[in-house]
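Just curious. Protein, please.
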Amino acid sequence: MSLEKEILAEVRPTSRDVEEVHRVVSKLIDELKHEAKERGIPGEPLLVGSVAKDTFLKEPEIDVFFTFPDTTSRKDLERWGLELGEVLDKASRRYAEHPYTHGLYMDYEVDVVPCYKLKEPSARMTAVDRTPFHLVYVRGNLEERQKDEVRLLKRFMKGTGTYGAEARVQGFSGYLCELLVLKFGAFGKLLQEARSWRPPVHLQLEMEAKRGFDEPLVFVDPVDGERNAASAVSLDSLSVFIHAATEYLRDPHRTFYFPEEPTPKPPGELRDEMKRRGTAFLAVSSSAPDLSEDILFPQLRKAEQSIVGCLTSHDFRLLRSRPFLMEREWCVMLEVEIYRLPNVKKHSGPPPWLKNAYSFTSKWESSPDLVAGPYIEAGRLMVEIKRKQIDAARTLQHALPSLSLGKHLNEAVQGSFEIHVGEELLESGYGDILTQFLTRQFPWRIRRA
């Protein structure tokens, strides 16, 4: 049996799985209809997503849209949509362009999402209104044999860390996986083609683009030429997929689909690893606001950029950084080449023949921060001055409250924040995060210790 057949045998739902999930869906649809009738809410539920298109893997998430007449106000759509979401157990409010409900229904994860029922995609009023048209398109074009090709592709992307359009991943959505199989016909053919991709990559089916796109991967949405169905895919996610495709075709292996999780390293081993690297590790953290990942993660990336920018502007050389979002806390882990800088730094001025040369020398000759100079070096005026910040942690301690971290993270930092350095990370419970940070390796190459 080929590797692909072995993987399919594991991830393809059995006939019993299919029967069970549709039984649950039928019950959920009936309950939503009943609730809508009881509350006098106009509209009807519609099953969408991979379950509706029969491209789901085992243990799927169920997506049900409640379609409202286009005469419904946005306020009523959101209010009624959330009311209907109360049929779910452990219901929690999440946000995309507008709020929706995530929860459990008979042990299945479910999203109940409000949208408008439209006659054509171009009349969309919210970002999700195209989804029913995506359903019709895929159902009408995807061949039966290609459903398993989609399943293989989804599992491959899950294994390589490139699956999911959410902000944390910035990868390939389920719909994009279906479009890629429609474009190339089969999983293997897609991988063959992907080896030769050079960003920006532009793909389409019968629909021509109706505007320009500047993302690394463009796949013109076949139901709306104004939309790039691959807009969520970052350059890094696209690059990882290209590399994974190349390596898989060279040496197919199960770990491309089911990678090993890195073994958590004991404190002693992490301590030795930090010493061996000879760098300095810091973690900036604060409480995580009670908001969805898709709202917080873009802010967390912004926070990472601001923190890195702060350190580099003070001459700390960053080896790498990575944001982490936990249940009640966010963290930016940093590795700097040198934790403590010299007390003195060189500061370059203009050539002596320029008009501002006099103001440069006058400024620094009277400055208490002057250590040496002015003098000429390589044709420019030069001074040596005292550094204002020489300690990486103190630099961040001083600057963090004034950095642009994103609205909700700025509010969290104004409350309180912590900065842990070196072995403090181990004493403060950051061992698992530090393990992830140090295990910078493609998922399919990780080998459990």
